[in-house]
Design goal:
Blueprint (H helix, E strand, L loop, with lengths): L1 H17 L5 H27 L2 H5 L29 H27 L5 E7 L2 E5 L4 E5 L17 E8 L8 E6 L5 H4 L13 E9 L4 E8 L20 H5 L5 E10 L2 E8 L9 E6 L5 E5 L4 E9 L4 E13 L2 E3 L5 E3 L9 E15 L2 E12 L9 E16 L3 E13 L17 E2 L4 E2 L2 H9 L11 E11 L5 E12 L4 E2 L5 E2 L1 E12 L1
Antiparallel strand pairs: 1-4, 1-26, 2-3, 2-26, 4-5, 5-6, 6-7, 7-8, 8-9, 9-12, 10-11, 12-13, 13-16, 14-15, 16-17, 17-18, 18-19, 19-22, 20-21, 22-23, 23-26, 24-25
InterPro entries: DUF3138
Protein name: Exported protein
Keywords: Coiled coil, Signal
Length: 522
């Protein structure tokens, strides 16, 4: 019986395992089985060696006239007979185990030094359905190729791919990581060339990490912002839509070089690069020469950003970031060659100093998570009337997971956001106003009634204040499997100005969203 069992292990289980994917866990499991078989072979060889040689060589020919007694498989003694192996049997088993060991060694070598060593590809798809009351629209959002970025159409409804390659093993191994979002990532909605045009590429981030010491790592490439508690990826968010600070206050992405440093409970990040969203140094036309050729100026001042995190305990992380640089303002050229700067054409120059800082915390314990964030930012000459833009805000989030008898594992999230952008008509940061000083899709800028009153008196609304924005989001999350997450969200947004454009052409102070999202992670 033991002989049959071992032969089944060798000829059945091992080939199936060897044909599986060459992951480290599978290799370890295969090696463990081989070790167990080798131990069993040694025990069997010891048993054979202790038996008399004559007994091993004696064979009894079956008597043709005798009928074997029927075997009672229900007997408690069935299958307990002592197995006897010859030296040839043991030698054959040793050869089979040696062959399997060779295969394991080959798999280990390929996993550590082969072309796919250290390579991982992960990601998700997240088709989303949203009803928007102000626009009177309801539709599925998935792979919708467009460059607009709104709070109801940001980084969701897309395919996300994370491709990472580690060169070697251990903490000193360098790595390269690229994330792709073909339709709603940084490349489609935010990354600009030298003239501010969006290039519609699928690249979202691209980072190279080169450890210099056990505590310091060199970082280069296209990185996301250091600001805030919220992440970009839908499968790592506890709500369906992003908070107001993520969408319109925190800086975006950067291209440049930096370093990460850790010391005890502290972690530091430093980065020097182009101004946010720029794949190339910004170039602005400042006029024309006598022949009508453009005269330009370039933003030669790099942007510096840094972040620090302190791990207070296993449950609490407290962090903050800072950002300082010079941001390029929008510009326009009149028929006579005159160049105007700023949203309202009132800025005195082509750019202004940008300063931003924030503090955030994350508390996670068992099935409970709390997040908080405070923001402050300002940008010279970036407001609608050409003055200084200034904004500040708050975001609070609470989440809890639980089980229901029929539904199973699920969670609930509530979030509140506040973003004040009233100074000089609003603007600055990630708030993009139109020529009338309004962002009618996202609810920022001056109110429609104030603009109408100003225009009736011959003005352009430069005396109007910008809007203060708030929202409350309520989410239910369902986890039917480890790969699948389903979210349902109701969100109410409101402002103190008439800044939300309705589908009938009028303006209101609020809007509502009802949305659901299906996320499949892989």
């Amino acid at each position: 019986m033991r002989k049959k069992l071992i032969c089944l292990l060798v000829t059945g289980s091992l080939p199936g395992i060897a044909a599986a994917d060459a992951t480290s866990d599978q290799i370890k499991a295969l090696q463990a089985q081989l070790n167990a078989l080798q131990k069993e072979v040694k025990q069997l060889r010891a048993e054979v060696a202790t038996k008399p040689k004559a007994a091993a060589a004696v064979t009894v020919a079956p008597a043709p006239a005798v009928v074997a007694a029927p075997v009672d498989i229900s007997s408690p003694d069935y299958g307990k007979a002592q197995a006897t192996l010859t030296n040839d049997d043991v030698t054959a088993m040793k050869q089979q185990i040696a062959n399997q060991q060779l295969k394991v060694d080959s798999l280990e070598d390929a996993a550590q030094t082969g072309p796919i060593a250290g390579l991982s590809v992960t990601g998700y798809i997240d088709p989303t359905y949203i009803y928007n009351r102000a626009q009177s629209s309801s539709s599925f959002l998935f792979a919708n190729h467009e460059s607009s970025y709104n709070y109801f159409n940001s980084t969701f409804g897309d395919l996300y791919l994370d491709i990472k390659k580690t060169f070697g093993v251990g903490p000193m191994a360098p790595s390269a990581e690229i994330t792709l979002m073909p339709n709603r990532g940084n490349g489609i909605t935010l990354l600009q060339n030298s003239h501010g045009d969006i290039g519609n590429n699928i690249l979202n981030t691209a980072v190279v990490n080169v450890p210099l010491t056990a505590t310091t790592t060199l970082v280069a490439g296209l990185i996301p912002s250091f600001g805030g508690y919220e992440l970009q990826q839908s499968n790592q968010m506890l709500t369906l839509t992003h908070n107001l600070l993520y969408d319109f206050s925190d800086p975006g992405s950067y291209i440049g070089i930096g370093a990460n440093y850790t010391a005890g409970n502290w972690a530091w990040k430093f980065f020097l690069g182009n101004e946010q969203y720029r794949t190339f140094g910004a170039v602005t036309q400042t006029g024309t020469n006598a022949l009508g050729d453009p005269i330009t100026t370039s933003n030669k001042i790099p942007t510096f950003t840094a972040r620090t995190d302190y791990t207070w305990s296993s449950a609490l992380d407290i962090g903050g970031s800072i950002n300082i640089g010079r941001q390029t303002l929008p510009s326009s050229i009149a028929d006579n060659g005159t160049v105007s700067y700023g949203v309202g054409g009132q800025a005195p120059s082509s750019g202004g100093t940008f300063f931003f800082t924030e503090a955030d915390l994350t508390y996670t314990l068992a099935d409970v998570q709390y997040n908080a964030e405070l923001d402050y930012g300002q940008q010279q000459n970036a407001a609608y009337n050409g003055g200084q833009a200034q904004w500040y805000g708050l975001s609070l989030l609470a989440h809890r997971k639980f089980n229901l008898p029929v539904v199973g594992r699920m969670g609930a999230t509530v979030r509140y956001d506040l973003l004040v952008d009233s100074k000089n008509g609003g603007g600055g940061g990630g708030i993009a106003l139109n020529g009338n000083g309004m962002d009618t899709a996202n609810g920022f800028g001056i109110g429609a009634d104030c603009l109408a009153n100003s225009q009736a008196n011959g003005g352009l609304g430069f005396e109007c204040k910008g809007a203060t924005r708030q929202d409350v989001s309520l989410d239910l999350l369902f986890y039917p499997t480890q790969q699948i997450t389903v979210k349902v969200e109701y969100r109410h947004d409101w402002a103190n100005k008439q800044v939300f454009l309705k589908n009938d052409g009028s303006y209101g102070k609020s809007n509502d969203l009802l949305a659901t999202q299906f996320i499949y992670s892989f």
